[in-house]
Amino acid sequence: MSMSGQNSDISPSRPWFLTVLCYLTIFGSSYMLVSAISALTDLSQIKVSLEKSIENGQVVFEQAFKNSQADQEKFDQILGDISVANTTSNLRDYNIFSLISNIFTLLGANLMLRLRKNGFRFYVLGTLIGVISPILVFGSGNFLGFAFAFSAAFFGGLFTLLYALKMKYMQ
């Protein structure tokens, strides 16, 4: 019996770094999925919580901008834009998009854990939805939409790059 026949039946091994990336994504996407579902069940509480955060931010930064009237006005305008965007319908839409985005990234990570290239495509789609949706929901000129989109782009882009480096191990 030759050894070459037995080696062809063995599946390729998964690098430990890819395993760690997949489990980090599974953990993060699962957490964000539960957060989106939780937020959808009580949108009014999320709205009130964001309003309190805006008020606290205003109090904290009042002292910092005490000497600069122009900076104070700019900061007040940003907080005003956030307040205008803080509606239950916007929060509902954002959390629905977040739910969809995290389902795709979770599915993608599970497939990549099994060394399937299609998982990378699902992950990238989920990341793109996560980046584009806050801009669509809150507006491109709104700080809230920009902040959500930037954080999704930063972390999603970083993980996409790291996954792309491990594509050679996927089928």
Give the tags:
171 residues, mainly alpha
State the gist of this model:
The chain has 171 residues and is mainly alpha-helical. The protein has 7 helices and no strands.
Q: How does this structure look, described?
A:
The chain is an all-alpha fold and 171 residues long. The protein has one domain. The chain contains 7 helices and no strands. It has helices at residues 3-7, 16-41, 43-64, 69-85, 88-113, 117-138, 143-165. α2 packs antiparallel against α5, α5 packs antiparallel against α6 and α6 runs antiparallel to α7. The two termini are 28 Å apart. The mean pLDDT is 84.
What are the low-pLDDT stretches, counting only 5+ consecutive residues below 50? none
Total DSSP helices: 7
Span from first to last CA? 28 Å
What does the overall shape look like? Answer: elongated
- SSE order: HHHHHHH
The residue-averaged pLDDT reads 84
Strand content of the residues, in percent? under 5%
Integer-rounded radius of gyration: 21 Å
Q: Specify the structural class.
A: mainly alpha
How many β-strand stretches? 0
